[in-house]
Amino acid sequence: MKILMVCLGNICRSPLAEGILKTKVPENFFVDSAGTISMHEGEHPDKRAIKTAANHDIDISKQRSRPITKADLEKFDKIYCMDIDVFEDVISKAENEEQRQKISLFMEILGDHENAEVPDPYWGGMDDFENVFQILDKGCSKIATQLLTHNS
Ligand code: 4NP
After folding, report:
1. Where are the active-site residues found (predicted)?
2. Which CATH number goes with the domain that contains 41?
């Protein structure tokens, strides 16, 4: 099972989602993350994201930002998008229905259709990063349960 988390810059939300989900699924699951922009390509996650993860004993410091590619849509089984702009951008890269079916909004797993987006903490403070961590932690628990139920 291959799971891809996607946000805009791949330095705040999706690296946290990758790090969190990795703690909840077996090692034979491949979990990765990417961004829809290449502006931060090659960079480690934002220092505030690294610190927030470390506060929860998760090390995301070695991750590097990379932009999503069309090959990712073929390679991964599930692609979770952090907000609606990201979702629309990723969907626009899909070349067939099978690829489109893999792509969803992360917040759908929490059944929250009013707050459909994982808020972008980039312009915020440490409280915003912690809030995002809590949202991602809840969502990743549900994703892990769902994947383990359907793929064991
Ligand atoms: P992310 O946050 O999409 O959660 O990684 C952002 C990172 C960078 C920018 C915006 C959001 N930026 O404008 O550079």
Report:
1. 7, 13, 120
2. 3.40.50.2300
